[in-house]
Amino acid sequence: MPNPRSPHRFAAIDLGASSGRVMVAKAGRDTLTLHEAHRFPNHPVRTSGTLHWDILSLYNGILDGLRAAGSAGPLTSIGIDGWAVDYGLLDTDGALLGNPVHYRDTRTEGIAAKAWTTVPPTDLYAATGIQYAPFNTLYQLLAAQGSAQLATAERLLLIPDLLTYWLTGELGTELTNASTTQLMDPGTGDWSHEVATRLGIDPGLFPPLRHPGDPAGQLLPQVLDDTGLTSPTPVTTVASHDTASAVAAVPATTDDFAYICTGTWSLAGLELTTPIRTEESRKANFTNELGIDGTVRYLRNIMGLWLLQECLRTWNTGVSAPTLEALLIEAAAAPALRSLVDAADPAFLPPGNMPHRIAQACEATGQPAPGTPAETTRCILDSLALAHRRAIEDAQRLADRAVDVVHIVGGGARNALLCQLTADACGLPVVAGPAEAAALGNVLVQARAHGLISEGRHEMRALLARTQRLTRYEPTRDPASRAAWKEASQRVLP
User: Fold this and answer.
1) Among residues 14, 105, 161, 242, which one is catalytic?
2) Rounded distance, CA 125 to CA 282, Å?
3) Is position 242 annotated as part of the catalytic site?
4) Which pTM value belongs to this model?
């Protein structure tokens, strides 16, 4: 058993939509530090009209990252978290059948409507508690029905499970990520066999379920050779859905909190102990995903900083590309709440010329179209803050539970303007940080599994609150400003 009073080194492989990182942490009962060992790009590739993940490039980046992580000494454990819903298919020999398809691919267009003729959306939500999103694994599998790949497949592995398999040779399906597939019952924590059977999906494609903290095997000899790591090096199952890891790293000091996990997406909601699968909840488009320790992540998916990221990608093709820092300074001085969009509108899901689409959405609703990058940025951040407000207000109402603070974790915690606007919109204090919440949640589950920190998630969060840099934003007290936010919220109700 490791000495719990001596910090140990953990590698957190944290995969995002645009890049992956291998982070190294020292963790113990009074210690939690984190640094980046290696970052690598994650560029999707379109071939024959289909958008794919370049999974082999990601795996190579992981090997490079583990080599860098191990250069300073042995690792106590390794864990992988990443995005949800996407998967790879294996044949009977365990070989990958083609590159995984990207969730932003168009193959699922119109699939949900077909599925609902067999399992109505009310039945689907009552069984799985998962909000409608066109890219859910359920709809991806229905879109793939009749394909040679799916007909040949012996196993289906979600992306973090696929990469874990390549590192260890061990098959498994991690619970928090499995809960996003729209094929699980969040009440039982097992597959919804009725839904799968009615739609012609075989749950036997999925390997057995694993829970955060379970062993996931040890690095294979070839991986040890490729990375220079020493044997044995265990891989630990973490909350492999990055949002589940991020929620595990919310540094809350009480249970009366809401969270917003920010990045490409904004995931806003509450941590509950039981799912809410009422018809009102379904119509409000809330999802019941599983978290660590039997918790439920009751949340709404919002488009998030993807809107700004895509705008920057468009602007960066110009002669004088604005920097994010300059844009935020100019946006802070721009008129507040002048132009707003519904940040949850699926029209913003595909890539491509986001400034034009935002301007069109404003014009279609009789609002002035943003004319400069700064005005567009202010429109995005005001709209996100309002989407955060609506999600948190709705979650409290539907769960019959009040909160007194909002925790913003993930990349958006670094965006001071977004954090202040969210505090003003919600009328609640916002505690921002840690920005590296997914990696820290990954590490904490590993450290707990190896007996290096206390078992309860409240103790995990207390360690975060003691060791991580956090910033508090107080909401505006100005009555006119509060009234303006209330009026704006009514203006852009979806």
Assistant:
1) 242
2) 7
3) yes
4) 0.94
